[in-house]
User: Fold these one by one.
Assistant:
Number 1:
Amino acid sequence: MPVLLGCIADDFTGATDLCNMLVRHGMRVVQLLDVPDEQEPVPEVDAVTIALKIRTCPVAEAKRQALAALAWLRRAGARQLFFKYCSTFDSTDEGNIGPVADALLDALGADLTIACPAFPETGRTVYKGHLFVGDLLLSDTHMRHHPLTPMTDSNLLRVLGRQTPHRVGLVEYAVVRQGEGAVRARLAALREEGVRHAITDILHDGHLMTVGHACAELPLVTGGSGIAMGLPDNFRRAGLLEENPEAAQLPSIAGKEAVLAGSCSAATLEQIRVFAAERPALALDPLDLARGFDPETVLAWAMPHFENGPVLIYASAPPEKVEAAQRALGRERAGAVVEQAMAAVARALVANGVRRLVVAGGETSAAVCRALGITALRIGPQIDPGVPATVSLGDPPLALALKSGNFGGPDFFLKALRVMP
C-alpha cells in the first residue's frame, strides 16, 4: 500500500516531534534518518518522515536535499507532502524556509501553500501574522539572541517575504474562526491574488484542525508539527485511512538502560538535576574531551551501576561553562567534541548490552543514531508533548527516546524509561 503522507523535516528531533503528532492522530509512522537509496523498500505505514539537517545549511544545499527527499517520497506513492520546520520559524533573511518551500512547490507544479508554525499546546500562536511564544512576541524571547537564527522580527509576513520573491498573504483569525469552508474560500481568493504562501492565524488547537482540514487538496503543506494534527482526518474522510487504535504500539525491548545528554538548554539541565538526585550520573567536561577521550573509562564507571537501574552520562553545562568552552575551543569544535564523545559512548554501551536509551539534544540524538547505524525509527506513544517513544528498525532493535533540548518536564528521563515498551 502506498504512503499517504510524505514528510520532510529540516532537523532530526523536529522530525520526531512531527511523527509523534501523526501517531497521536491515528497514523502508523516511520522516521527515516536520511534520504534512502532508490532500492530501499518502502515501509508499510501510513506516513513517512525523512529527517534532514537543512535548517541552517547553505540555501542551495537545503534545496538539493529537500528535492531528493521529495523524489523518494513521490516514488513511495505519497499523496500529499508536508515540509516541517520549527514552531519558532527558525530562519534567516536568506532562508531556508522560503527557498525550500518554493523549490518543493515548483517540483510539484503547485501554486499555493500555507505557512503554519503555530503549536498552541507548546505556547506558539499566531495572530495578525505575528508569532507569539506564550504571552511574548517571538522577537522578545530568547530566540532574539539565537546564535544561528536570531529571530528579531515577529511578523511572519515580513520574515517570509524576505525569503521568497513570491507574494505572502494572511488567513486572518476572523476567517479561521468561521470554519473550514471559510478558510478554503480565503485560500482560493489569495490564489487569485497571486499569493503563493499563506500565513495562518492560530490561537488554539481547534484552529489547527480547521486549517488542516481545509488543506486536504493542497499538494504541499508547510509548518510546525501542530498543523499536522488535522491532516490524518483528510485521508479518513477520503476512505484511505482506517481508524487504528494500535498505531502507537511498539514491540517490547529489554536490556540495560542509559541516558545521554548533550543539550545545554534550561529544560535539560533541570532534567539532569532531577535524575541525578536519584540515580548515578557522570559529567563529561568538553575541555577534557578535547584533550583526548576513551569511552572505556565511561563504560568502566557505568557497568557496576547497571544492576541497580539506569545511569546518566552528560556533557550539558550552564551558560557560563558553555561560553568558557567555546572561548577555549571555538563554537564548532566545542559542539563537535561533545557529539563525538556521546556517539562513542553510545557505541560502547550498546556493545555491552544497553538496549534502552534516552538522548537529550537534537545534535546529540543525530550523532548517536549515526554512530549506531540507525537509519529508521518506528514511532510509538507520546512521552511528553513533542517526544514519542521509538524503536529502531534493524539489529539489534533499540528502544529510544530522542528529545529536543527544550522539550519534556523535569522528570522526563525516568518517565521516558517507564513509557518506552
Number 2:
Amino acid sequence: MAVILANDGIDALAKEQLEALGHTVETHHYNAFDLEHRIQEIDCLIVRSATKVRSNLIDHARNTKQLKLIIRAGVGIDNIDHEYAEANGILVRNTPNSSSDAVAELAIGHMFAIARHIYHANVTMRQGHWNKKHYKGIELAGKTLGLVGFGRIAQSVAKKAHALGMTIQYHDITGPRDSAINATWVDKETLLRTSDFLSLHIPYDPSVGAYLDKAAFHAMKPGMYVIHTARGGVVDESALLWALDEGIVAYAALDVFEEEPTHNEALYHHERISLTPHIGASTTEAQARIGQEIIQVIQASLT
C-alpha cells in the first residue's frame, strides 16, 4: 500500500476512504525546505496551487526513487514541472472533472460584483457611508460575454450566463468546438472588440506570455468588464492597471495573480478591482468531488 502526502490538504471523506483501502495518508503541510526531505519517503504527493513541485524538488525524490505519482487536486498543472517529472518516471495527474462548476460560479459571482458594485458597497457601508447614488450599475441580461478558451470551465460559465440572458461568444486556439451550448466562435480581434464582459479560462504558457497585454487592451472595446479566474500571468497586471486608469477597462475582477499571495498594492487598493484569493475551487462540493477523483487516480495509477 502507498504512503500518500496531501501537502495542501484533502477532503476528509476521501482521506478516510484511502485509509480504508490500506494506504497511509498524511495531511501535514511541509514548507519547501522540509518537503525536500519528506518527498523521498512517500509514494504519492497530492498538491493544490500552494505547493510548487519544481525540478529541484523532483531531483530530491529521485534520490530514493520511491515517489511514483504526483496529483494536482484541481485542473491546471502549471505549478508542477510535469514534463521533467514524467521524464524521470513519475506520473503526473490532475482532477479536471471536479471543480468546473465551482470556478464557473465564482466567475459569474464576480460579474455580478463588478456590474452592481457589490464588492465596493459592502466595504463603504461598513465604513458608515450610504453611497446609494454612487452605485448605479448595469445588468448582465442583454450583454455579450466573451470567453477566452472553451474548455470545461468556460462551457460551464457559458451555460450559466446564457440562463441570465447573455449572448455568448468565445475564442479558442483549437478553433470552433462542437457543443450543445449556444455560443459562437470568433477570432481574438472580434472577441476583444465586441464583448461587454471578458472571462478568461486558459492556462498560462510562459513561452507565449500574457493573453491580455497592453496591445490586447488597446484593441478592446472601451468600457470592458474583465473577469480573471484562470492562472496568474494570463493577464499582465501592469497593463491591466494602465487600461483601468485609461478607461479602456471599466472594472476588473481577479481571483488569480502573477505572484501568490499577491503583494501588488496597486491591485488591491484599486477601487475598480474586485479581488478574491484564488478560491475558484474552494467549495465543499468541489473538494468532495476532487477527493473522489483523487481516489480513482490512485487506484488506476498505483495498483
Number 3:
Amino acid sequence: MKKYLSIVAALLFATTTMFAQGKIGGKVYFDYSYNKDNSVTNSFEIRRVYFSYSKALTKNISYKFTTDVGRFNTGKDNRLSAYLKIAALSWKTKYGKFVFGLQGLNMFNVEEHNWGFRFIEKAPMDKNHFASSADLGIGYFLKLAKKLNLSAMITNGGGYKKMESDNYKKYSLQLLYGDAKISKGGFNVGASASFEGFDKGTVSGTTTVFGGFAAYSTGKIRFGGEYDLMNQSGYDVTKSIISVFADVKFSKIVEAFARVDLFDPNTSVDNDGNTYIVGGLNFVPAKGFSIAPNVKITSPQSGNSSTTFAANFEFKI
C-alpha cells in the first residue's frame, strides 16, 4: 500500500511541478438576463468557461492549450460541453513566427480587443457568423516595421468545433498598423480578408470576407469602429456590418460603454436589416472580476423590437 501511495505522490508532484513551470489561465462568462418576449423570460446562464495552459520549450518555441465550455445545441441536447479551442505550437524564427495546430484566427481578433467586452457580447464578425474565432491550420506572423504587422493563415475553414468536410481551404490575411491591444492607451488601424471555395450540391463559388477597422484609446476614453462585408458568389448574396463603440472610464472601478451594430443580411434586398444596440456600466471591484448591468436592443427594419435587460459577470485569472 505504501508503495502505491508513493507512486501516486510522485505522480502528483511531477504533475504539479510541470504545471508550475508553465502559465495557467482561466475565464468564466456568467450572466442573468430578462426579456419578456422570450419563451423563458428570465434566466441565469454560463456562456463560456475557458481554461488555458502555456509553456515555453525553448527561447523560440512554445505551446498553448485552451479548452472552451459552452452549450451543446443539437436538438434537445443543451448540456454544457467542453471543446478544444486552442492546441498550438509557436516557432519564432528570423523570418517571422510560424504557428501550427488549432489556433486563434486573424479575422477579428484585434476588433475583439478593441471592443473590450467579450463577456458581454461577441465581436460583430463573430456575432453575425462572418468568421470563426479559431481554426485548424498553419499561421505566419511577420513584423514589417515598428508598428506594422502582417499575418497569413491557411486553415480548414470550419472553425474549431467542426472537422474538415470538403477539399477547400480558407486563406486569411490581416494587415495591422498600431497596437493590437489598446485598453491602456494607443491606436490601431487595419484590414483583414479571407477566401474559401465551396461546393454545395448544384451551387459552387467562393465565400469572401473583408473587414476594415480602426480604434483609439487614451486609457480613459476608448472608441472605434469597423466595416465588414461577406460575399458568397455562388448564391450572389452580400452581407454587411457597420459597427461603432465607445467606452469611458470614470475611475479604476467604474466605466460606461455602448455599441451600435447595423447588420444587413442581403444588401440587394430592402428593409431586411436590423440595428443592435448594447450599453451599460462595468464595475471592477477587484482584479479579474467584472459586473456589468446592461441593456441589449434589437430593432429589425421590419418587425417589432426586442429588449433584453442583463447583468454579465466575468471571473478570470
